[in-house]
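How it folds:
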Amino acid sequence: MRGILSYGAYVPYHRLERKAIGAALGAGGGKGSRAVASYDEDTTSMGAEAARAALAAAPADSAPRALYFATAEPAYLDKTNATAIHAALGLDPAVFAVDMVGAVRSGAGALRAAIDAAQPTLAVLSDIRTGLPGSADEASGGDGAAAFLCADSPAVIAEYVGGSAVSAEFLERWRAPGDLASRVWEERFGEHVYVPLARQAWEQALKTTDLSLEHVDHLIVTGLHQRAARAVVAASGVRSEAVADDLATTLGNTGTAHAGLLLADVLDRAEPNQVIAVVLLADGATVMLLRTTEALAAYRRASTVQSQIAAGKPGLSYAKFLTWRGMLSLEPPRRPDPDRPAAPPSFRSDPWKFGFSASRCRRCGTRHLPPQRVCIHCHAVDQMDTERLADVPATIATFTIDRLAYSPSPPLVAAVVNFDGGGRFNCEMTDVDPDQVAIGQRVEMSFRRLYTAENVHNYFWKARPVRQPA
């Protein structure tokens, strides 16, 4: 049966309370909070984190043969962003990696393409949503990513029952390349167009799958036009207790990734043999119907959407948020600007730089970070096996807080960490409170963007404290 074999979600650590927007600007804001990608995150790094979670929960014999990456906020144009995720996951070079970028609907396209594929395929959905200061998009938006490993297998946890899609060309929301924020037409126009399209797709999906409203156990309706989404829910005929929370007050709308994050949240708590309906309003209407299987009862999640929301850190200042988004320019550190990463050495060290793979000596068992040809212990030459350490936890041996080093968000916290099973490495930390970092603290590795120089992004790995719910 075709469907979802495993899934993963990623919610950034930082939270911006919406009331902070109103306090700073005297208007706007609202209730609740939104998830905010850190200064060292982008859609590629968040997508890699969600994909790591999906693959960690996948069966051992289900390596993906293709990777589809969907986002409306790509880190690069012309260059494929999915290849960085491919490298961070340590996938086989034969795995086809491609972008589906530029629009919110790309997320539904990537997921449907992965489900329809004849081989195991990984769909990664990621987005960073922002807007002009004080805008509704700024307050209601959110950042996050979701990933789904799909296959035709008896081990799927959610079978794809069927669906329907209706496409229409109309100018409701748009953003030209290079623009910082989207422009939106008058709200009533969007509602006027979306509701009939959703009704058409909904009725067609139920008809082709022989399902009725009573069969739907979980209904997900999402889209950037929230007024239209609420109208579609009201007109759906599905009982109110089956309507999934849109996470607007705790996470915000994550655009391209939001249908995937809501689906992951529903799968976190769904039971076997339940029907999940996903309705996305974006340049038309897309409906996907899935039925959970008995395999869901034994499924082991890396972490749930709700646990990541609960583990977030509130209190991000509005000024720092604007700085991270490039809306507010501060005086840079009085240090030389970092050099642009060079392409040849990055290519040569790809397994280390992107895959965070170490080497272990076959003769004496010493692990080396970065990987070496000559063992520092027994001096054996070219007697090394490659070991991926991205998913191996570590412990802080010592650390320092540097308030003078170059960092877009000082102070910089650097730590020497000891990996379980051997190996020591000096690395930068992220998502950490300088006042709470401590020797002996458990950390895990996270794929991040160290800096950007001359529009070249320098991706590498940082250590972060193992997340615990607040």
